[in-house]
Amino acid sequence: MPPTTSVKPRAVVLSGPSGSGKSTLIAELFKEYPTAFAFSISHTTRSPRAGEQNGREYHFVARSDMENMLNRGEFLESTEFSGNLYGTSKKAVDDVAQTGRICLLDVDKQGVKNIRKTNLSALYIFISPPSYEILEQRLRGRQTENEAAIEKRLKEAKESMEFSKEPGMYDHVILNDQLEVAYQSLKNILRKDIDGVLEQQKATNTAK
Ligand SMILES: Nc1ncnc2c1ncn2[C@@H]1O[C@H](COP(=O)(O)OP(=O)(O)OP(=O)(O)O)[C@@H](O)[C@H]1O
What we know:
The protein has helices at 22-32, 63-71, 90-98, 109-116, 132-142, 147-163, 179-207, and strands spanning 11-15, 37-39, 43-44, 59-60, 75-81, 84-89, 102-106, 122-128, 172-175. By secondary structure, the chain is α/β, with parallel strands linked by helices. The chain starts with 10 loop residues before the first strand and ends with a helix.
């Protein structure tokens, strides 16, 4: 039998204000489809923490090496945080696609802008909270940020909501009011992508 031609799955870029529910929805996808999705491994110039392994949590690189890679245009998006560079390389995303999984990218609006400028084949989805009041409640309920961080996130949320209306940025907007409804919408949007990946995996396993 001729080998089945495998098509590399396209990446999925998820964005939305902090607290809108991206991690929650992504966790649901991983739970229901443990083999269909994966995250790419980012690069960073920060030092590895105890227990972290190069190529697993991050690709740990020297600043000069990362700057050279940036100059060569090897990153889809990058940012500086607390004096360290972080970025998603084109190769890291392609590495996930090579394994036959859908690469999930959870990025802010600047990340979306930057990735849109590249030739990455991806679907762009915005996760929207039902209102600022509910977003605030969820951020407070999560108990992961102090007051200053919550204020900062709420301010950024306004900008991110405005940005979501810019034409040509997002392919879909999902309103995360009832979690189950939002999750079903996300699955419907990704239906063909998920089925394609699972069929491909089935064919590969059968051929083994
Ligand atoms: N539909 C929903 N109804 C009620 N609570 C929700 C819903 N979706 C998410 N939450 C809760 O809201 C909080 C924020 O969600 P989550 O951490 O997934 O946001 P996020 O977009 O990943 O934020 P960040 O960008 O800061 O990581 C969590 O405590 C989560 O359990």
